[in-house]
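Weekly structure sync, notes
Attendees: PL (lead), two postdocs, one rotation student
Agenda item 3: pending single-chain targets
PL asked that the sequence for the first pending target be pasted directly into the notes so everyone works from the same version. It is reproduced below exactly as submitted, 217 residues in total.
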Amino acid sequence: MKLLLIRHGQSMGNAEHRMQGHYDTSLSELGRAQASLLAERLRREGWQLAALVASPLRRAAETAGIVAAALELPVTWDERLLEYDIGRLSGVVWTDVERLFPEVWQQLQGSGPVGFPGEEGLDVFQRRVSSLMDDLRGRYQDDEVVGLISHGGTLSMLICCALNLPPRRPQPFRLSNSSLSILEFQRRGPAVTLLNDTHHLDGLTGDRPSPVGREPR
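Predicted structure, written out during the meeting:
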């Protein structure tokens, strides 16, 4: 089985530099343009998908709708593709974190563990994403391709689960808006054959992963 891992286009939360998690906003105008370019790339490259599965959060759902229209596919919604729940920090503007959550801010400046009040928990997150991966592997054949439209943290965790990497923060794979990555399950084990590819966005500007890798998206 081959998984096309697609991060949603730029959301209004991205544009406003908000901590997102389950904070639910639509795509920005740029995000819709990004999603359209990605959809056109997939159509042009001739991808034949057995299924298109997406997070129901609006930024992912709107991206999925654009891709689904281009590929003439229905969308299956799965809450296991939701972004990591960062609890009380959901929706907080990044520059307000120091004032509103000084303890969290201090943790983010260091290299040690970071805890968000009311967060989901990395172990719970790992089990959620691993459950989805196991279900997909049991449902689809080796030669089938499935598209997943989700969030940076969730797709990074999915790669970690496939490669048996321990969960950690910050996530080790930083994925840009409307990026395409490919995860293949081969006889000798899983392999990442494409990571964070955005060449379809050449000429557009937009959100890139946080330079320090500490800002949850």
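Discussion points:
- The domain at 2-201 is CATH 3.40.50.1240 (Rossmann fold).
- The first strand starts at residue 2 and ends at 7.
Action: rotation student to compare against the earlier draft before next sync.
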